[in-house]
Design brief:
58% helix, three-stranded antiparallel beta sheet, 5 strands, two-stranded parallel ribbon, globular
Length: 226
C-alpha cells in the first residue's frame, strides 16, 4: 500500500495519520500504554517512504499483536512462553572442550543465580541435550511470573524468549537485571564458539542478523513500556 498521509501525530496515546486514528489489522484502536512507546510507533509511520513495508515496522507489529492476538486472552500465549522454563537453553551444557564449558558457565551461571535469588527456585543442569526435568515448583514459579504480565509485555517478551531460547534470560532482561547485548551474547555462546573455530558461514551470519533485528525490537519494546 502506498503512503497516503502527510502528518503523523500522537493523540491520547493513539497514533493518528492526518488526524485519523490508526487501526490494527483487526480494526481495534492502535492505542499504546506509554507516551514513549506511542512516539516510537509514530516514528515508524513517519519513516515510511512511498510504500508501507510492515516488515520494518517492528514496534507497530508487536503492538498489533499485543492488542489483536494476545490481549483478548493472554493466558494461552503466556503458557506457551512459560513452557520454555522446562527446557531453557541455560540448563544444557557442553561436556567438552573445556574452553567452551568455561564460556558457557561464565555467560549462563549468573543468569541462573539471578533467577534462583529472584524466584527462590532450584534448577537442574545437564551435560548434553537429553531432556532434564526441572522441579515442578520451579516451572510453576516461572509460569506464575510470565502469567502476571499483560499483553504488551508478553508481546515484547516473545521474540526475546523464542530467539534466545531462554525464558530465564528474557525475564532477567525484562526486570533490568541484564541488558539486551548480554542476553544476545549468552544466547549465542555455542554459535559464536563454532564460528571462532571453523569460520563464519555467510548464510548463518545473515540469519543471525535477521534474528537480531527482531530481538532488538522486542528489547526496545519492553524498554518503552517502562
Amino acid at each position: 500500500m502506498k503512503r497516503f498521509w502527510k502528518d503523523v501525530s500522537v493523540e491520547n496515546g493513539q497514533v493518528a495519520l492526518d488526524g485519523k486514528p490508526v487501526r490494527t489489522p483487526d480494526r481495534a484502536a492502535l492505542a499504546l500504554p506509554t507516551p514513549a512507546l506511542a512516539e516510537a510507533v509514530a516514528d515508524e509511520w513517519r519513516a515510511v517512504g512511498e510504500t508501507i513495508d510492515p516488515r520494518v515496522m517492528k514496534l507497530t507489529g508487536l503492538a498489533n499483536a499485543a492488542i489483536d492476538k494476545i490481549g483478548p486472552d493472554p493466558a494461552p500465549f503466556a503458557a506457551g512462553l512459560a513452557a520454555y522454563g522446562e527446557s531453557d537453553l541455560l540448563y544444557y551444557r557442553a561436556g567438552e572442550p573445556e574452553p567452551l564449558v568455561a564460556r558457557q558457565a561464565e555467560s549462563w551461571d549468573p543468569l541462573l543465580d539471578w533467577a534462583r535469588s529472584r524466584y527462590d527456585v532450584h534448577f537442574e543442569t545437564a551435560t548434553g541435550v537429553i531432556h532434564k526435568a526441572q522441579p515442578q515448583a520451579t516451572t510453576a514459579r516461572l509460569a506464575e511470573a510470565v502469567g502476571a504480565l499483560d499483553g504488551f509485555h508478553l508481546a515484547g517478551l516473545h521474540p526475546l524468549v523464542t530467539i534466545s531460547g531462554s525464558l530465564v534470560g528474557a525475564l532477567a532482561l525484562l526486570e533490568g537485571a541484564i541488558d539486551a547485548e548480554t542476553l544476545w551474547q549468552a544466547a549465542h555462546v555455542d554459535e559464536l564458539w563454532q564460528a571462532e573455530q571453523w569460520g563464519e558461514d555467510e548464510l548463518a551470519v545473515q540469519a543471525r542478523n535477521t534474528r537480531r533485528l527482531d530481538f532488538d525490537a522486542g528489547a526496545k519494546f519492553l524498554t518503552l513500556l517502562n
